[in-house]
């Protein structure tokens, strides 16, 4: 489930921008995806909307304009090394099982 959530946030796009409206808001304003938290929202609404997954967005003062411009012009989604590493490892595992 976590891999699906991370891939959804990093790769699923509409018109070149993040499909998730909350992600799109933060990314347009220069944030990066720092961490994805499993079962962080156990409310009925949280479980129904996102399987309980919540995201931490970080605004790095020295990079806000750069990240916002990059997202606006190319759709590039900035994410922490940990988030990207987790997605890559998951893709490798999936490839081995195919």
Tell me the layout of helices and strands:
Blueprint: H1 2-11, E1 13-14, E2 17-18, H2 21-28, E3 32-37, H3 44-50, E4 54-58, H4 64-74, H5 81-97
Antiparallel strand pairs: 1-2, 3-4
Distance between the termini: 18 Å
- Strand percentage lies at 15-25%
The strand count comes to: 4
Overall structural domain count? 1
What are the secondary-structure elements, in order, as H or E?
Answer: HEEHEHEHH
Based on CA inertia axes, which overall geometry fits? Answer: globular
For the largest beta-sheet, the strand count, sense and barrel status come to: 2 strands, antiparallel
Helix amount = 40-55%
What count of helical segments does DSSP give? 5
Poorly predicted sequence stretches spanning 5 or more consecutive residues: none
Mean pLDDT: 84
Rg (C-alpha, Å): 14 Å
SS-based class: alpha+beta
Strand order of the largest sheet: 1-2
Textual characterization of the structure:
This protein is of the alpha+beta class. It has one domain. Helix content is 54%, strand content 15%. It has 5 helices and 4 strands. The strands form 2 sheets. It has a two-stranded antiparallel ribbon with strand order 1-2. The chain has a two-stranded antiparallel ribbon with strand order 3-4. The two termini are 18 Å apart.
Question: Key features?
Answer:
two-stranded antiparallel sheet; 98 residues; globular; 5 helices; alpha+beta
In short, what is this structure?
By secondary structure, this protein is α+β, with helices and mostly antiparallel strands.
